[in-house]
Amino acid sequence: MVGQTARIAHIMRALLLAASLLLGTSCTSTFEPGLSKAELANRRQVYAIEAYPVKIVDRRKFDPRFRPAVVAAPGGYDVGTIVVNTHEKLLYLIRSDSKADRYGIAVGAAGYAWKGTATVARKAMWPAWYPTDEMKQHALGLPERIPPGESNPLGARALYLYQGGRDTLYRIHGTSEPWTIGTEASSGCIRLLNEDIIDLYSKVPSGAAVIVL
């Protein structure tokens, strides 16, 4: 009973935050990118083609290990595999036998963490968000669909994880809450900064294997 109560409470907190984001009433942080004017202008130009604004996040506010980097690949995985280490709060895209792209992530909170092997069966740019039946049961009035946008809970991109041809309902996606990176904050999905999910999305084909540890 205690576990179920905590689960419901977490769902409610997540839904209230999503609703406040949509209404523009949530607490926001001002990010000072710490870049030169030329670097900032170049970064903004890269995202100018996006359908919605992409905030440039100040990487100095994060532990350096959560910054994107090319690192030694974890051993034993095929090239092209996404490896999610929920304990480290890190995601690896295996690029060769020796190298991987590494990103900082947010993972599922207690009672929501998911582990297993899946496949990227679908990819979406600026996806809409459809709350699950469980979420709607515990948050009356929650809409059937939350449209794409900079405050959508799925962010700029989403990779949809399937097992045996069936949707797990878990995603690797962007976030409008960059301060959650490096924490256990989600309802089971894997979150990256919008800048990072855009980068990862461009490198990962449909059918890619995903291993969540």
How many distinct helices? 4
Shape: globular
> How many angstroms separate the termini?
27 Å
Q: What Rg, in angstroms, do the CA atoms define?
A: 17 Å
Which spans of ≥5 residues are poorly predicted at pLDDT below 50?
1-33
* Largest sheet, strands/sense/barrel: 9 strands, mixed
Q: List the helices and strands in order.
A: HHEEEEEEHEEEEHE
**Fraction in helix:** 10-25%
Share of residues in strands: 25-35%
Number of strands: 11
Structural class: alpha/beta
Strand order of the largest sheet: 1-4-3-2-11-6-7-8-10
Features:
two-stranded parallel sheet, 26% strand, 213 residues, globular, disordered N terminus, 22% helix, single chain, nine-stranded mixed sheet, alpha/beta
Structural notes for this entry:
The protein has 213 residues and is α/β, with parallel strands linked by helices. It is built from four helices and eleven strands. A hairpin with a 4-residue loop joins strand 3 and strand 4. It is globular, with a radius of gyration of 17 Å. The relative contact order is 0.21. Residues 1-33 have low confidence and may be disordered.
Task: Give the structure's gist in a few sentences.
This protein is α/β, with parallel strands linked by helices. It has helices spanning 2-23, 37-46, 133-137, 194-203; strands at 69-72, 82-85, 90-94, 99-104, 107-108, 116-125, 157-163, 166-173, 184-186, 190-191, 209-212.
